[in-house]
Amino acid sequence: MPSVFEAYLNLTNAIIKISTDDAAKSTITSNNQKIGEIHTRVEVTKKILFLPVGIEYNYIVLNGSEYKMYESGLGANQHYFSIYNGNNVVAVIHKDDRVVNYLNKYTLYAEKDDYMFVALICTMFLESTAFCDRTGGIGNSVVDSPYYTAQKELRNKYDPSFIPKIKALEGVE
Fold first, then answer.
1. 103-106: long-range contacts at Cβ-Cβ below 8 A with a sequence spacing of 24 or more?
2. Better pLDDT: 51 or 121
3. Could you tell me which residues are beta bridge partners of residue 108?
4. DSSP label at 86?
5. What pLDDT was estimated at residue 138?
6. Which residues share a beta bridge with 28?
7. What is the DSSP letter of 141?
8. Are 125 and 118 in contact (CB under 8 A)?
């Protein structure tokens, strides 16, 4: 992650900004008012030789609600970010493996508009930190990079029934 970054989104009635000056915490503002934070954390899942081992996730506080975002790579064009509210998956971000002319493509799925806003904020965060192109993107390029998560606990955070459920609710194939 870059040491300092800012991302902006101009909505109809608000300018959303995500900024950070350290790798552990980002601040989310709307029209210069703080509305949340994103932290990188580790969830301890077991101990090996008395050492804690766990899975990394992003902890999001947005407008007083708490969320966790887990990254799961299941192979070719199966790169997902599952957003949880409590124990329930409320949104999923699919990141396309294929990057054309330095532009990433994301597809967002959410149960309701409030969760879509959370997914949008998380996508801004991902694009500004993990998947940004800082070279300026000169010329034509196509990169196809499948992503695979080795940790079973992280792979299991992705619910394969969620996207079809949202598509069915929206009447999309």
1. 103/137, 104/131
2. 121
3. 93
4. T
5. 63
6. 18, 36
7. -
8. no
Mean pLDDT over all residues of the chain? 84
- Cβ within 8 Å of residue 110, ≥6 positions away: 90, 91, 92, 116, 118, 119, 166
Which residue is it, tokens 């069915």?
A: 168
Instruction: Check: CB of residue 125 under 8 Å from CB of residue 26.
Output: yes
Can you tell me which residue has the tokens 């997902």?
Answer: 80
Flag whether pLDDT at 1 surpasses 70.
no
**What backbone torsions phi and psi does residue 87 show, to the nearest 5 degrees?**
-95, 5
Burial class (CB in 10 A: 0-12, 13-18, 19+), 91: buried
Name every residue whose Cβ is closer than 8 Å to that of residue 153 and which is 6 or more positions away in sequence: 45, 55
Give the residue from 133, 17, 156, 142 showing the smallest Cα distance to 73.
156
Pairing of strands 51-62, 33-48: antiparallel
In the chain the beta strands, taken as DSSP E runs, fall at: 5-10, 15-20, 25-30, 33-48, 51-62, 65-75, 79-85, 88-95, 98-100, 106-110, 142-144, 147-148
